[in-house]
Automatic annotation (TrEMBL):
Residue ranges of domain Fructose-1-6-bisphosphatase class I N-terminal in the record: 18-185
Subunit structure, interactors included: Homotetramer.
Span of the signal peptide: none
Highest rank taxon of the organism: Bacteria
Pfam families in alphabetical order: FBPase, FBPase_C
Protein name: Fructose-1,6-bisphosphatase class 1
Annotated binding of substrate, by residue: 111-114, 201, 253-255
Ranges for domain Fructose-1-6-bisphosphatase class 1 C-terminal: 191-324
EC class of the enzyme, as a word: hydrolase
InterPro entries on file: FBPase_C_dom, FBPase_class-1, FBPase_N, FBPtase
GO molecular function term, any single one: fructose 1,6-bisphosphate 1-phosphatase activity
Keyword Metal-binding: no
UniProt source species: Roseiarcus fermentans
Length: 344
């Protein structure tokens, strides 16, 4: 059940009560930097170029500029906050911050920036890790998701939301637009178990692995199919927006590896995107996998290694995992006809 604390609870006081001092300091810095990013995003077309030329991936000049701005805003905001270094989706190499810092931050400063032109939701994804002793090194970031001290997302939508965990459940703060201060609006968020919504980019159906094709086909058959109920497809094009919706309304998100060049091992950054969301979702009672295993158990091989990702309500993710584990049935083996074992 989602818990609403007393009106007036502020983020700083909440962190002081619920997080260790080092993590509270880093999260407060991330929250402050996200206000800087939100101001720039809110300006929209007033900063010019939002409807200008698109890049090779469909990202406008302004979207790329916002990506760069958000990166710089978060790196600057983390200076003096006990963070030794940052790995960002916007830089190939890690960025040193404070030499005496005891924490590391991995982040995607502006997820879904290709949505900027269309005035659709974008967000920030972040993860906080311990910094091992010794000189700053990229290898320090190569820790499994289970090692995260904190993680969260910032959603720049109709209101700005800061959803985070320090390993003791999920809390959400909302930004008061008049005072630019954060107020806690939920302190024990739980993903609803029941939902008819699922999120995947169906334009890539022909490229998906067989288990995903079979799972989605069963959903699309609706009440006439093996699941016996109708489902609703959602796709925003920004993982952070999908994650927040699932935290609030339930459902499941799939971004599988597929047959396209460059997508064979997945497309999302393990450290900067997938692990933070997986930690957040698990702390809200959900689950996250790469298809075959719990995502937080994956050992990263490099700071920008890519991964497939499935996350959402636990029962839904576990069902998808069965499709992967028992692929022979997901292939609609004739022996079992229309109602294979996986569809019960």
């Amino acid at each position: 059940m989602n818990d609403l604390p007393a009106a007036g609870d502020d983020l700083t006081a909440f962190l002081d009560r619920n997080a260790s001092p080092d993590v509270a300091r880093a999260l407060a810095a991330l929250a402050a930097a996200s206000i800087v990013a939100a101001r720039r995003i809110r300006r929209g077309a007033f900063d010019g170029g939002l409807h200008g030329d698109a890049g090779s991936c469909g990202d406008s000049v302004a979207a790329k500029a916002l990506d760069a701005f958000a990166h710089e805003a978060f790196v600057a905001g983390l200076r003096g906050a006990g963070v030794r270094g940052v790995v960002s989706e916007e830089r190939q190499e890690p960025v040193a911050v404070d030499a005496d810092g005891t924490l590391l931050v991995a982040l995607d400063p502006l997820d879904g920036s290709s949505n900027i032109d269309a005035n659709v939701t974008v967000g920030t994804v972040f993860s906080v890790l311990d910094a091992p002793p010794g000189p700053f090194d990229a290898a320090h970031f190569l820790q499994p998701g289970t090692a995260q001290r904190a993680a969260g997302i910032v959603v720049y939508g109709l209101h700005v939301a800061f959803a985070f965990t320090v390993g003791r459940g999920v809390a959400v703060a909302a930004l008061d637009p008049e005072t630019e201060t954060w107020r806690i609006v939920a302190s024990r968020l739980a993903i609803p178990a029941e939902s008819s919504e699922f999120a995947i980019n169906c334009a890539n159906t022909r490229h998906w692995p067989d288990p995903v094709q079979a799972y989605v086909a069963d959903l699309l058959e609706g009440e006439d199919g093996p699941r016996g109920e109708d489902f609703t497809l959602r796709w925003v094009g920004a993982m952070v927006a999908e994650a927040y919706r699932i935290l609030i309304r339930g459902g499941v998100y799939l971004y599988p590896a597929d047959a396209r060049e460059g997508y064979e091992r997945g497309r999302l950054g393990l450290l900067t995107q997938a692990n933070p969301v997986a930690f957040l979702v698990e702390q809200a009672g959900g689950a996250a996998i790469d298809g075959y295993q719990r995502l937080l158990d994956v050992e990263p091989r490099s700071i920008h290694v890519r991964t497939p990702l499935v996350f959402g309500a636990r029962e839904k993710v576990e069902r998808i995992a069965r499709y992967y584990r028992e692929e022979a049935f997901a292939l609609r083996a004739p022996l079992f006809g229309k109602r294979g074992l996986l569809r019960r």
